[in-house]
Amino acid sequence: MKSPSDAAAALCEDLGEVLRKHGVQEALRCLNAEVPHRYTAVFVLDGDLLRNVYMVDKLGEARPEQLAVVPLGNSFCQFVLRDGRLCTEDSREERLLDGSPYQGMVIAYHGVPLTHGDGRLAGTLCHFDLVRQSLGDAQFERLQQAARLLSDHVLRAASSRLPDQPGATA
Predict the structure, then answer these.
(1) Rounded CA gap, 64 and 83, in Å?
(2) Which of 77, 74, 106, 80 is nearest to 91 (CA)?
(3) Are 50 and 72 contacting, i.e. CB atoms less than 8 angstroms apart?
(4) Cα gap 101→152, rounded to integer Å
(5) Tens digits of residue pLDDT in 76-95
(6) Of 4, 26, 38, 76, which shows the fewest CB atoms inside 10 Å?
(7) Which sign, positive or negative, has the C-alpha torsion 51, 39, 83, 157?
(8) How much is the pLDDT for 137?
């Protein structure tokens, strides 16, 4: 007999199936369960801002208010959008992030871009934490695969949300 955690792990193996049956939030929950990071989140571009439209917190706390809407120029996401990825176990040691008000607040950050069907950048999918965390190659590849799967679903859902209601937390 499978334990509940074994059953959850089996369900999460097929992220596409979870997405189709249970939606973006549950797919992010599954993705988050596979990594040590406390948070897994989606940020969507809105002009010069990034809006957090989905976030999973392993501790189940409300989203930190300072992460609801982030100026693009201060964000870690700007480098994901520019370079196609950002991976840092400890932002305090990442010179690329010097000057960001989030450097040292968000410590571990691993992010990949979300794109529209025509390839235009739309936002980011990321794992992050307030403490140092690493992400293995297989876990990073899973994050990239998840971004490809999630893009259309996330963007469709995000377009129906009001700008002043940037997302659910779990």
Answers:
(1) 26
(2) 106
(3) yes
(4) 30
(5) 999 999 999 999 999 999 99
(6) 4
(7) negative
(8) 94
pLDDT cut 90: percent of the chain above it: 69
Mean pLDDT of 118-138: 95
**Angstrom distance (rounded) from CA 87 to CA 8:** 27
* Distance spanning both ends of the chain, measured CA to CA: 29
Predicted model pTM: 0.85
Cα R_g (the chain), whole angstroms = 15
Locate 92 and state its tokens: 């305090």
Query: What's residue 46's pLDDT?
Result: 93
Structure tokens given for 99? 């000057």
Rounded Cα distance, 141 and 9, in Å: 18
Q: Which amino acid is at 23?
A: G
